[in-house]
Amino acid sequence: MAALRRRRLAAEFNQRRNILNQIEPGPLALDPVTGWRFIDHGQSSELTELARRCADLFASFKRDGGTDQVLARNPSKRFLLGVLSGNELLAQPDLVKLMVARPIVDAAAHYLGSVPRLEGAVLWWTPPNASQTSSQCWHIDELAGRQVKILLNCSDVTPDCGPVHFLPADRSDAVRKQIRHRRGRVSDQTLFERVRPDEVRQATGPAGSAIMLDSSRCLHFGSRGNERDRLVLAFHFFAADAPVDSRYHIELDGFTGPYAELDPIQRLAMAHPR
User: Which domains does the chain have, with CATH numbers?
Assistant: First the structure.
């Protein structure tokens, strides 16, 4: 599918790759070997502001009874409950423009090898829970060979908030090769037979801190064992020829209104092939 999409979009893909020569990796560049980086509160003014706006949105959502409605719709699930996702976020242009701020796009571009596209986004709320299923188990995101996912803490996240746990890409690659893993979940027992506990990282930090993560390479899980609420905005970038769109796909119809302010690189990051 990637080859077919690349053939159909050959001119655009080459443009995105050639433009990379005009872009510096910037202060948020990911390590190409380990596939991740931590961004502390205040290190990125755009992410700090984005976290603040998301927290305000969630507070309003909660006051209006939104959390009760979400829980009623998901009686058997108490983790990763969507507050806003996909094209719903286009009604919040200030949020979307912060997601494609140049330091973020430039870092993603250099990791992925071309100007990427903002594939999708979702504001997740996880209340206290005791489950261990689905994405609460070790896995990789299988929609693309590589991606840059930003997991932005919109509330203070401590170890009792069910933070994302992950294994850096180089160690994940080695473990997956040993166990011949291609898809599906990996048990704690299987992983820790090959990995020391101190090799596992946690995406903890104050509101406004974030992890930039290649979740297609880094084994990870999250929202497990929450004793307190966690609010996180997840948004991710794919190369333009990624074969599959996510459930939280964002597609902007045109660069009008607030989106007219986007520069050419940001417009490429928001453009999606139809």
Answer: 2-270 (2.60.120.620)
Cα–Cα dist 202/225, whole Å: 13
Identify the residue whose tokens are 């704690």.
Answer: 188
**Alpha-carbon distances of 271 from 22, 247, 250, 255, rounded to whole Å:** 19, 17, 9, 10
For residue 30, what are its two tokens? 């990911």
List C-alpha distances in Å: 32 to 92, 98, 169, 216, 257. 32, 24, 9, 13, 36
Query: What are the pLDDT digits (tens) for 212-247?
Result: 999 999 999 999 999 999 999 999 999 988 877 888
Give the HSE-up count for residue 33: Cα atoms under 13 Å, Cβ half-sphere: 1
Coil, strand, or helix at residue 155? coil
Q: Phi first, then psi: what are they for 116, rounded to 5°?
A: -90, 180
How much is the pTM?
0.95
Residue 124 near residue 232, CB atoms below 8 Å: yes
Quickly count: other Cβ atoms within 10 Å of residue 188's Cβ. 12
Spatial CA neighbour of 168 closest among 68, 30, 43: 30
